[in-house]
């Protein structure tokens, strides 16, 4: 795993898809392995 995105969220349901899509679209061209972890601490 080259990059881990650990993102705390609380009451962010309306923006998660956009955030996820943005991370994937901007990270995929770098040819790195990555994971996205959303932490719901609410």
TrEMBL record:
<protein>
    <submittedName>
        <fullName>Glycosyltransferase</fullName>
    </submittedName>
</protein>
<keyword id="KW-0808">Transferase</keyword>
<dbReference type="GO" id="GO:0016740">
    <property type="term" value="F:transferase activity"/>
</dbReference>
<dbReference type="InterPro" id="IPR029044">
    <property type="entry name" value="Nucleotide-diphossugar_trans"/>
</dbReference>
């Amino acid at each position: 795993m080259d990059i881990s995105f650990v993102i705390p969220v609380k009451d962010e349901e309306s923006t998660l898809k956009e955030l996820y899509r943005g991370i994937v679209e901007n990270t995929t061209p770098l040819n790195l392995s990555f994971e996205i972890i959303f932490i719901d601490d609410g």
